[in-house]
């Protein structure tokens, strides 16, 4: 199952969602970022599990959602591209003062060994109502994930700063 599950991770605002949409356009299954879905729901309901209010609660929900997403795609026959995943959420929980990324849990819930990271790209980074942190915080997040994935046995492939079509070609060529 894990070989078909491809993670797009990296710098917030680095073009993951745009790349995901291009992969969807090409007929691939995609799963949108747990964090963004949680933020949308919490903002709509007046909830508190927001990264700027309660990072620990937010990260725990993101971990649970990432696991639910994996299970929902378990029987899908082709490649499935995830905008972030379990490791991203577990890493966020670790820095919020929660538990460290658990090697055994991360080993059970594996993705494809290749993880594609969007690098910091100030020219395209923007904030919005759901992404309230600045570029410096996005850079810190990238640097953390750039270390976390290899520590868990993943091969990190940094995406080039090229058009979304070229990025999609790059990802598919590497798979």
UniProtKB/TrEMBL annotation:
Residues 6-167 form the NadR/Ttd14 AAA domain. Gene3D superfamilies: P-loop containing nucleotide triphosphate hydrolases. This is AAA family ATPase.
């Amino acid at each position: 199952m894990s070989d078909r599950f491809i993670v797009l991770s990296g710098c917030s605002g680095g073009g993951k969602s745009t790349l995901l949409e291009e992969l969807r356009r090409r007929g691939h299954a995609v799963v949108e970022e747990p964090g963004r879905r949680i933020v949308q729901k919490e903002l709509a309901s007046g909830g508190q599990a927001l990264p700027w209010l309660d990072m620990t609660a937010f990260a725990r929900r993101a971990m649970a959602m990432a696991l639910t997403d994996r299970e929902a795609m378990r029987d899908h026959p082709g490649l499935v591209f995830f905008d972030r995943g379990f490791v991203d959420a577990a890493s966020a929980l670790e820095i919020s003062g929660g538990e460290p990324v658990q090697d055994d849990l991360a080993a059970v819930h594996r993705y494809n060994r290749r993880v594609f990271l969007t690098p910091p790209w100030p020219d395209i980074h923007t904030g919005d109502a759901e992404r309230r942190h600045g570029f410096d915080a996005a850079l810190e997040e990238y640097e953390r994930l750039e270390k976390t994935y290899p520590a868990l046995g993943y091969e990190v492939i940094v995406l080039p700063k090229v058009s979304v079509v070229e990025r999609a070609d790059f990802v598919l060529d590497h798979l």
